[in-house]
Design brief:
heterodimer, A: alpha+beta, four-stranded antiparallel sheet, 17 helices, B: alpha/beta, five-stranded parallel sheet, 7 strands
Chain lengths: ~600, ~350
């Protein structure tokens, strides 16, 4: 961490000392992210923040002119931890463009693979990456008072998970030496085996194609998945109460912790898991089959559901420029003036955008970012939606819509999501209920992650029931032939592990003419747009109060890191952002130099 | 070197997806815990400087080891690189890829900048994944960054100060155990317990990449019987649907992806050649039948030797990188901005 003193601002009666601190690169995330802040230690709050990630690869550029059937093989390589979400999203977009509807078995196999991905990815991120921020070693170093209290606080669910105190839970999360930390690594492996059963290889699948899957549906395939899933179900029965104990303790030990990473409730979820009984991949029927997805798409603003219509969601997407290293595409061609329903499609929509990179020196006052600013236009405002790290938006949207009702395993009630897990080897049936929380903040993003792991497991049980139904009826075909049209458009919507994911494709002369994937991290971690609206990390970090007991000289920045990690940053998707403004400190533009 | 602690410095900041870092967490033979905790006899002490699971919160505290290594104060160290190397020379200013800031500067140190700083001091360089080894997906035709692999950047004949050639574990991403097993081997070699790592002409460990996909594929029996899949969900041989298994050097169908589970053509996924220097361009469009596939599958039974010759010819082609992956001020990928 780099530290540097700056002349501060403040009221005339109380001068403020701002201290520049930076962390670049941040560890325990996927990809390279740097955070540059100015901290007011008297008021114990983050005054300002720049965040940067520095990578450009150019997928939308080198995909031009390629065979549309190659799109999912290529786009999977965008991300090394949730590449399969890109692969699936691309297959959805291809299905629409090619006009092909996979057999039901193909969809169940794909859903099972994706459920395994959520189970794996949320698990490793929560316990082995985020968990370290809440482990004994870290808490002792940042908040000795909290550690002291934790060792004396009985864990309410001790009977279920076996850890007597909150301190014991923290100890179990210590890297490598912690029991739960090591167990989670093992869990992350057998869940990836489940994934490989369905999609061949992790993280870039081998067996997915437009039209379905190459995975051969057999009794052995589903049994091998089943036994691992039930191990995970048993693990979830311990994992959910353990995390409730840990996260509830934080609110109790540090009143006001709800403001760490808090921002206005502005959540987007693009839906996940197709229902083959309803989904025909046609754009014209997308409103209907979108609402039948097993995670309901939706935009949630200030706790209210704005829409759950995928067509409306699609048409509202805008890609804005602001402080990024790109030229505008005003003078370039518009590929899709109208959607297949006759609705006008904006020039700033992914179907019509162009990627025109222009590398520059990094200058926080000018261009400093390799990511553009995606927004959702509600007819009035360009909303800076975030994904809540994925699970928070998924559960919120699904709960409010109240549409999901999955074979007794999962039910959305309008205000909550009920998850029911059957008896497993050593533990009886268990039910969990995720209730809409008061805040969109770091703790609730993290809590939702654990609940969504249980959701994914329960959903997989339903998908297995359906796959066995097909298998036993002899309907084992999992792939449907198709031809590539000369001219077509397609779009795919799903949820990458850490949030909204869309792929938009335009085909001309049988080749890709335009292809733009929009993954979650650009939604969460973008810079101010042309209208000056800050990106989600900006609000979240800038509002963050400092609870760490260390002063500037030994400051680690744990509260800031908890706020950032709660979004599950996945930087290969590209982030480079700027935070904060308006302070007179802004005029003190100085190099943010690391310090030994 | 037997008692020395070996530092493993990992930079995933090439044009990558971090998929090889993630793959290493999936490895079970050996697992990352087993390497870090010294679970195997003869392992030297190991210190990882690997962003994905690093305890510290990052920044200068994390980068300290990298600057120490540059000053020669961290000996020996293995430099692991992940991601293809963008060509920073083809543009006027700015950067394609950076990792931390240079001391006293507000600009990032580029990926190639780190390689320049650290390669002279490294005991060995391990390139994890096809992007790092040969360029991979981000070095595709039409790319704007001029991306290339480490062999193109440092030279195919490059050797470390300890005389170790660049060690390449290709795969997109790497098969998890292939990567962890190679790391284990290098640590054993550093401790004096194993001889020089055996590598083929493209830097690949020979025991991992000495055979073709086809030779290890459990669908090869269908090939022998002349039974070829006409649809992708068929359990038969996929060679007529785009599978390049007969000419691709990779052990995945035999080893599975994890714990013997999964893979590519053995479980219904065409082999797209992701371990090869010619990947991806020489294998695209992926879903078309490979050239020569018609002849070799038609004559699979009768003309074994003819087929082998044909395969050797094709292998030589796809085992070579396309011409546009190179250093210098000129971009030759075919990219135009408008």
């Amino acid at each position: 961490m780099a530290i540097k003193d700056l002349p501060g601002t403040g009221t005339s009666t109380q001068p403020t000392r701002l201290v520049e601190m930076s962390w670049d690169p941040i560890t325990r995330i996927v990809g390279s992210l740097g955070i540059y802040t100015k901290i007011d230690f008297q008021r114990k709050v983050v005054a300002e923040c720049h965040a940067t990630s520095s990578i450009f690869r150019g997928y939308s550029i080198f995909m031009k002119g390629k065979d549309p059937r190659d799109a999912h093989f290529i786009t999977s390589r965008i991300c090394g931890i949730c590449g399969d979400n890109h692969c699936v999203c691309s297959v959805y977009a291809q299905n629409m463009a090619f006009g092909v509807r996979p057999p039901a078995m193909g969809e169940w196999i794909m859903n099972l693979g994706e459920a395994a991905e959520y189970m794996f990815d949320h698990n490793i991120f929560q316990e082995n990456l985020v968990g370290v921020d809440f482990c004994e070693q870290m808490v002792r170093e940042t908040n000795p008072g909290v550690w002291e209290k934790a060792t004396k606080t009985a864990a309410p669910n001790a009977k279920i998970h076996g850890y007597k105190t909150i301190g014991d839970i923290m100890t179990s999360l210590n890297p490598f030496s912690g029991e739960f930390y090591r167990q989670a690594l093992q869990v992350s492996r057998y869940t990836r085996e489940m994934f490989c059963l369905m999609e061949g290889r992790h993280v870039h699948p081998s067996t997915l194609y437009a039209g379905g899957t190459g995975t051969v549906a057999t009794q052995q395939l589903f049994t091998d998945y089943y036994i691992r899933l039930m191990r995970y179900v048993e693990y979830m029965k311990v994992c959910v109460p353990l995390h409730d104990d840990l996260f509830n303790f934080w609110y109790e030990a540090l009143p006001g912790y709800e403001h760490v990473g808090e921002r206005r409730i502005l959540l987007g979820c693009w839906g996940a898991f197709q229902d083959p009984d309803n989904c025909d991949f046609q754009y014209k029927t997308m409103t209907n089959w979108g609402r039948k997805m097993f995670v309901t798409p939706g935009v949630v603003v200030d706790g209210k559901l704005v829409t759950n219509d995928l067509v409306a969601i699609n048409l509202g997407i805008r890609i804005l420029l602001g402080h990024s290293y790109y030229d505008d595409w005003e003078s370039e061609e518009t590929f899709v003036p109208k959607d297949p329903l006759g609705n006008a499609v904006d020039r700033r929509h992914p179907w019509n955008m162009h990627t025109l990179p222009t590398p520059k020196k990094r200058d926080f006052a000018g261009k400093y970012s390799w990511v553009m600013s995606p927004r959702w236009f509600d007819g009035k405002d360009h909303l800076a939606l975030d994904t809540g790290g994925g699970p928070l938006a998924r559960l919120w949207s699904t709960a409010l819509s109240g549409l999901v009702d999955m074979g007794g395993y999962i039910k959305a009630t309008g205000t909550s999501v009920q998850i029911n897990l059957p008896k497993s080897a050593l533990l009886g049936p268990a039910s969990f209920e995720w209730k809409v929380p008061k805040w969109s903040n770091a703790i609730e993003r993290n809590r939702a992650r654990t609940y969504f792991q249980a959701y994914a497991a329960a959903a997989a049980l339903h998908f297995l029931d359906k796959a066995f139904e097909e298998l036993n009826a002899g309907r084992t075909r999992s792939w449907e032939p198709f031809t590539v049209p000369d001219e077509a458009i397609g779009c795919g919507f799903t949820e990458a592990v850490r949030g909204v994911l869309s792929h938009h494709m335009v085909i001309r002369d049988g080749k890709i003419a335009n292809y733009h994937p929009w993954p979650p991290t650009p939604w969460n971690g973008n810079p101010r747009d042309v209208y000056g609206t800050p990106g989600p990390y900006e609000d979240a970090v800038q509002n963050t109060p400092i609870f760490e007991e260390n002063g500037p000289d030994s400051f680690k920045g744990i509260d800031i890191m908890r706020a950032v990690r709660s979004f599950d940053p996945c930087l290969p998707c590209g982030v480079h952002m700027y935070l904060g403004d308006g302070k007179t400190i802004e005029t003190v533009h100085s190099p943010l130099a690391p310090f030994g | 070197m037997a008692d020395a602690v070996v530092n493993v410095l990992w930079i995933p900041a090439g044009l990558s997806c971090d998929g090889d870092s993630v793959a290493l967490t999936a490895a079970m033979q050996p697992s990352i815990e087993e390497i870090a905790l010294g679970a195997l006899p003869g392992l030297p002490g190991v210190k990882f400087h690997w962003p994905l699971i690093e305890y510290s919160l990052g920044g200068a505290e994390f980068l300290e080891a990298f600057f120490k290594a540059e000053r020669g104060e961290l000996d020996p160290f293995v430099l692991v690189i992940e991601g293809s190397i963008p060509n920073e020379e083809i543009k006027k200013e700015g950067y394609w890829s950076g990792f931390g800031n240079a001391p006293g500067s507000d600009q990032p140190i580029t990926f190639s900048g780190w390689i320049d700083r650290l390669s002279p001091k490294a005991w060995a360089i391990l390139a994890a994944g096809t992007c790092a080894t040969y360029g991979g997906i981000h070095a595709m035709a039409g790319n704007p960054t001029g991306a290339m692999g480490i062999l193109d950047y440092l030279g195919w004949d490059w050797k470390s100060s300890a005389g170790v050639p660049i060690v390449c574990v290709p795969g997109c991403p790497t098969q998890p155990d292939n990567l962890s097993e190679t790391i284990l081997y290098l640590l054993w070699q550093a401790a004096g317990r194993a001889p020089m790592i055996p590598l083929d002409e493209a830097g690949r460990p020979t025991w991992l990449f000495g055979n073709t996909v086809h030779e290890g594929c459990d669908r090869a029996g269908y090939y022998e019987q002349g039974q070829f899949a006409g649809e992708y969900d068929s359990p038969m041989c996929l060679v007529k649907l785009g599978c390049w298994g007969p000419v691709v050097k990779c052990n995945v169908p035999k080893r599975g992806w994890m714990g013997g589970i999964g893979g590519c053509p053995n479980v219904g996924g065409i082999c797209i050649g992701c371990t090869m220097p010619g990947f991806p361009d020489k294998f695209m469009p992926f879903m078309d039948e490979p050239p020569g596939g018609k002849l070799s599958s038609t004559f699979s039974m009768a003309y074994g030797s003819v087929v082998r010759t044909l395969r050797d010819f094709t292998t030589a082609t796809v085992d070579k990188e396309p011409s546009w992956r190179h250093k210098g001020k000129k971009l030759t990928t075919g990219y135009t901005k408008h």
